[in-house]
């Protein structure tokens, strides 16, 4: 029973994420592509997907989301650094912009 609930939540998260990507792309394509680290081709594809295609992709048992911070040590340092609280937002933005 718990596994079924987890799978359903997983699928709902995928669906919500894909719909959010579409919304972000329609509102400000360049910003969305930068923030989500999407190529032009991927942005085109996601923008053109129908609700049926998005729903199908969301329910295929593959996780669509992935952390964009590849360096756990750097992210941990940003999260736990108390000396530079005013620059934390900037450091996080730089880390996210530098990862692909």
Topology:
Elements: H1 2-27, H2 29-36, H3 40-48, H4 51-58, H5 72-80, H6 88-98
Helix pairs in contact: 1-2, 1-4, 5-6
Overview of this structure, please?
This protein has 100 residues and is mostly helical. It has 2 domains: 1-66, Flagellar transcriptional activator FlhD (Flagellar transcriptional activator fold, Orthogonal Bundle), CATH 1.10.4000; 67-100, no CATH class. It contains 6 helices and no strands. It has helices spanning 2-27, 29-36, 40-48, 51-58, 72-80, 88-98. It starts with a helix and ends with a helix. The mean pLDDT is 84.
List keywords for this structure.
single chain; 100 residues; Flagellar transcriptional activator fold; 2 domains; 6 helices; 71% helix; 0% strand; flat
- The CATH architecture of the largest domain can be named as Orthogonal Bundle
CATH topology name of the largest domain: Flagellar transcriptional activator fold
What's the SSE pattern? HHHHHH
- Poorly predicted sequence stretches spanning 5 or more consecutive residues: none
According to DSSP, the number of beta strands is: 0
Largest sheet: none
First-to-last CA distance = 37 Å
Overall shape: it is flat
What structural class results from the helix and strand content? mainly alpha
Q: Approximately what portion of the residues adopt beta-strand conformation?
A: under 5%
- Portion in helices: over 70%
């Amino acid at each position: 029973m718990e596994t079924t609930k987890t799978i359903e939540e997983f699928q709902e998260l995928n669906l919500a994420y894909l719909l959010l990507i579409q919304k972000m792309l329609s509102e400000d394509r360049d910003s969305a592509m930068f923030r989500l680290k999407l190529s032009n081709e991927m942005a085109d594809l996601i923008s053109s997907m129908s609700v049926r295609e998005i729903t199908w992709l969301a329910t295929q048992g593959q996780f669509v989301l992935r952390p964009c911070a590849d360096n756990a040590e750097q992210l941990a340092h940003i999260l736990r650094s108390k000396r530079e609280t005013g620059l934390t937002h900037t450091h996080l933005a730089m880390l996210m912009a530098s990862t692909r």
